[in-house]
Each structure stands twice: as structure tokens, then as C-alpha cells.
Design brief:
6-stranded mixed beta sheet, alpha+beta, 30% helix, 2 domains, globular, Nuclear Transport Factor 2, Chain: A, single chain
């Protein structure tokens, strides 16, 4: 009986600890505990993006030209990490990854009525698993 009570107490402490960690500031924990909660609530300053991200952002507002054929294609938000919008609202753009033999995992996804004047842009370095809203 004592073994079961002790085991239950250890499990309770573990669950409380994990929930505390998940509710703290850790993006990875929050994404793991709350996969449908938008990670987009977190932001990143434009100046803190890698130089390739700043260049992609500049090209978006300039209207291109973009280095990849898929740049500017509709982003479906199937992962539901970004705020819900009608299909066609979001478009994705490649952020070059030095040394990568393909497009890599980094993207900027922007949403809005006009592609060169997006209402919001988000950066992902992990191929859509998490996003941070870009702020200037």
C-alpha cells in the first residue's frame, strides 16, 4: 500500500513539474503540451532573424524576384500553428540555409490581402513545427 501511495505522489509531482515547465516560457514545451495553441503568439525581431531571413523578408515587400519556384505559393496551415484564415491567405517563402542541398527547413509565411503588403509574417526554422511572429 505504501508503495502505491509513494508511486502516486511521485507521479503527481512529475505531472505538476512538467505542467509548470510547459506553462513557463519554453516554446518547445508549450508546443509539446499544447500542439494546437498557436506558437505565433511569440515574436522575433526582424533584426534577430538570420541575414537570409532579413533578405527574404525584404524580397517579400519588394515583390521578388525569389530564388525558388515554390516561393509565394499558398501555405495551407495544415499544422494549425498560425491563426485560422481562409485558404489562400497565407503564402510561404524560403529562407536560404547555407550548406543545404535543398530548400532547407527555414521559411517565412506571410498573410494578408496583398502579397507585398502582408498584415503579418511569421518565421519558422523547423519546417512549420513552430512559428514566431516577425516584428520590426
Amino acid at each position: 500500500m505504501m508503495r502505491t501511495a509513494a508511486s502516486h505522489a511521485v507521479r503527481s509531482v512529475l505531472v505538476v513539474s512538467l505542467l509548470s515547465f510547459a506553462l513557463s516560457g519554453a516554446d518547445e514545451a508549450r508546443a509539446w503540451w499544447f500542439p494546437n495553441r498557436s506558437a505565433a503568439a511569440h515574436s522575433v525581431a526582424l533584426a534577430d532573424l538570420p541575414s537570409q531571413g532579413r533578405e527574404t523578408y525584404r524580397l517579400i515587400f519588394q515583390g521578388g524576384p525569389f530564388p525558388h519556384d515554390k516561393d509565394g505559393s499558398v501555405f495551407g496551415n495544415r499544422e494549425r500553428q498560425l491563426p485560422a484564415q481562409k485558404r489562400g491567405y497565407y503564402h510561404e517563402y524560403t529562407v536560404e540555409t547555407p550548406g543545404s542541398r535543398d530548400r532547407g527547413a527555414r521559411r517565412i509565411v506571410c498573410g494578408g490581402r496583398e502579397r507585398t503588403r502582408p498584415e503579418a509574417c511569421y518565421y519558422t526554422s523547423d519546417h512549420y513545427s513552430s512559428f514566431r511572429k516577425i516584428v520590426e
